[in-house]
Design goal:
By secondary structure, this protein is mostly beta strands. It has one domain. It contains no helices and 6 strands. A hairpin with a 2-residue loop joins strand 3 and strand 4.
Length: 60
């Protein structure tokens, strides 16, 4: 599981792009229909959850 602080997110043609701060580095994570893709090859998962009150992102 990845946990980080949500910086920004946007949706474009069914793809959701999250920018999160994870372990003092900025990470871009791409989500499309329950699959996670990211250029940093961080531990991928199937679900993206984010807590709007704390602005935290969890990838499981």
């Amino acid at each position: 599981m990845i946990c980080g602080e949500l910086i920004t997110w946007m949706e474009y043609r069914g793809v959701i792009i999250f920018e999160i701060l994870c372990e003092n580095s900025m990470v871009e994570i791409f989500s499309y229909k329950y699959l996670i893709f990211n250029f940093e090859h961080i531990n991928g998962g199937k679900y993206v959850l984010f807590d709007t009150s704390t602005k935290k992102v969890f990838i499981i």
